[in-house]
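Re: that backbone. Tokens:
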């Protein structure tokens, strides 16, 4: 739900990243629940260009953004390794924070920031947008109604084709690598749909001679009740974005699961002994939904959940337990 007659949340943007330009800033401009009041960059020219297109005033430097009294919330699309210090600085400055995923590059830092936000009564949201798409709520409804019986396994994959060699996702010093960038999605999917505590049973990370980070991998997780989650991810692979839930009486398959375009009409495939049913849903914009959800949490108040911490713990454990396969 939106905020109705309540004042829009005044947002400052910390950095001029591609995802800010392509996704979040257009949503911040479009929804009545938020207002862009400032955009900061270390490059004054870039900040001016962004404000000319999205509004607000340009600010030179991230620290200067946090000093602005009219900024009550900050969106942080910086490289992953820069999230922890700047999210902490924003929280200490009394700002609510929407940070791009991953919130940090390790579980300890993620837990510290969540605890800090909770102690200061601030909203801290990791921008995992797919959980705000209504297709997953429909899947959860089907599961609750017993459409496939008791869930026995979850299978998910998210992979994208190779990017230009200078892309930040191939730079290890700023938090690059397939696990944190694309592996996060199937891990969060497992947390989203499976109850009970998840543990890493086994994992593999793969490398490429062309890049200094892991470029793919797989992991098997298990819940304390024996449900298995099999996950795959990659940065130099054919595009895949899907998950499948298998139960005793059937299965649910979702394609375009993690990054569907706003005009995409999802089709849930429900396979049971009696046949196959395809459930077509209306299109939905998960980017707008994520922005509205954050603004609503700021205005209405919301308990911080521990999904980001549990996700970070699993990502740490996958890396810690993974076998590393060299380039073939």
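Recovered sequence:
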């Amino acid at each position: 739900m939106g905020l109705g007659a309540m004042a829009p949340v005044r947002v400052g943007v910390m950095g001029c990243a591609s995802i800010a330009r392509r996704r979040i800033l257009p949503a911040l401009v479009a929804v009545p629940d938020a207002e862009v009041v400032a955009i900061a960059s270390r490059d004054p020219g870039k900040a001016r260009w962004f404000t000319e297109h999205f509004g607000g005033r340009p600010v030179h430097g991230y620290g200067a953004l946090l000093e602005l009294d009219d900024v009550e919330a900050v969106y942080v699309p910086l490289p992953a390794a820069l999230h922890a210090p700047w999210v902490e600085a924003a929280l200490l400055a009394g700002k609510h924070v929407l940070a791009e995923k991953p919130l940090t590059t390790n579980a300890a830092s993620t837990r510290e920031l969540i605890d800090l936000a909770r102690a200061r009564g601030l909203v801290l949201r990791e921008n995992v947008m797919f959980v705000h798409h209504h297709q997953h709520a429909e899947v959860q409804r089907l599961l609750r109604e017993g459409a496939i019986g008791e869930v026995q396994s979850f299978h998910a994959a998210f992979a994208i084709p190779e990017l230009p060699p200078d892309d930040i996702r191939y730079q290890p010093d700023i938090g690059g690598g397939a696990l944190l960038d694309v592996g996060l999605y199937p891990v969060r999917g497992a947390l989203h749909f499976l109850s009970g505590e998840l543990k890493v049973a086994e994992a593999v990370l793969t490398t490429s001679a062309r890049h200094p980070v892991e470029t793919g991998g797989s992991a098997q997780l298990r819940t304390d009740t024996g449900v298995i989650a099999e996950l795959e991810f990659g940065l130099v692979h054919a595009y895949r974005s899907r998950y499948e839930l298998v139960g005793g009486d059937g299965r649910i398959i979702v394609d375009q699961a993690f990054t569907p375009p706003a005009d995409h009409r999802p089709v849930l495939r429900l396979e049971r002994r009696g046949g196959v049913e395809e459930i077509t849903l209306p299109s939905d914009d998960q980017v707008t939904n994520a922005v509205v959800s954050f603004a609503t949490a700021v205005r209405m108040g919301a308990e911080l959940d521990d999904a980001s911490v549990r996700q970070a713990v699993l990502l740490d454990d996958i890396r810690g337990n993974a076998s590393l396969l060299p380039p073939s």
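The chain has a mean pLDDT of 96. The two ends are 50 Å apart (CA to CA).
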